[in-house]
């Protein structure tokens, strides 16, 4: 099992952070266009799930699975959206996304007076701690080729 990439979006759709680890194939489009497409897809999926649910869903949309990857989704009460793409075998990365938000993003970005709000993250400390955390997850290892 492995982790491919991570997106962090603000409530307006601006990509505040992007990292990739074991992504084997690019999209063939500019990065900014990829961010817009990803955010649009998340917006649509979230809306679709909310409308189609037969009951009032507390968590709403948390992931979806394809034959090649699983997309894990976590939205904070403030509208920050974290997206982690992994191999299909990773059943849940919710705790990891919650940890990234509460222990890394809040502590190293939100509480940092040198990081302007609603701007792409420029903190090297955040990037290095995020990378160390992701590499320490049990499902980080690259899949055999």
From TrEMBL:
Assembly notes: Part of the multisubunit transport protein particle (TRAPP) complex. The heterodimer TRAPPC6B-TRAPPC3 interacts with TRAPPC1 likely providing a core for TRAPP complex formation.
UniProt entry keywords in alphabetical sequence: Endoplasmic reticulum, ER-Golgi transport, Golgi apparatus, Transport
Gene3D superfamilies per the UniProt record, alphabetical: 3.30.450.70
Any GO BP: endoplasmic reticulum to Golgi vesicle-mediated transport
SUPFAM superfamilies: SNARE-like (SSF64356)
Keyword presence, Nucleus: no
Similarity section: Belongs to the TRAPP small subunits family. BET5 subfamily.
Keyword Transmembrane: no
Name of the protein this chain belongs to: Trafficking protein particle complex subunit
Role noted for this protein: May play a role in vesicular transport from endoplasmic reticulum to Golgi.
Predominant place of localization: endoplasmic reticulum
Annotated Gene Ontology cellular component terms: endoplasmic reticulum; Golgi apparatus; TRAPP complex
């Amino acid at each position: 099992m492995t982790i491919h990439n991570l997106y962090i979006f603000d409530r307006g759709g601006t990509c505040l952070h992007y990292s990739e680890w074991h992504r084997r194939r690019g999209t063939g489009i500019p990065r900014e266009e990829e961010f817009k497409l990803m955010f649009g897809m998340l917006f649509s999926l979230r809306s679709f799930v909310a409308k189609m649910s037969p009951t009032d869903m507390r968590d709403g949309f948390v992931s979806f699975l394809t034959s090649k990857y699983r997309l894990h989704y976590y939205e904070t009460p403030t509208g920050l959206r974290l997206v982690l793409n992994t191999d299909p075998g990773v059943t849940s990365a919710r705790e990891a996304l919650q940890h990234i938000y509460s222990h890394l993003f809040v502590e190293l970005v939100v509480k940092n007076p040198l990081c302007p709000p609603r701007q792409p993250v420029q903190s090297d400390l955040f990037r290095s701690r995020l990378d160390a955390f992701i590499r320490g997850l049990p499902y980080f290892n690259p899949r055999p080729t």
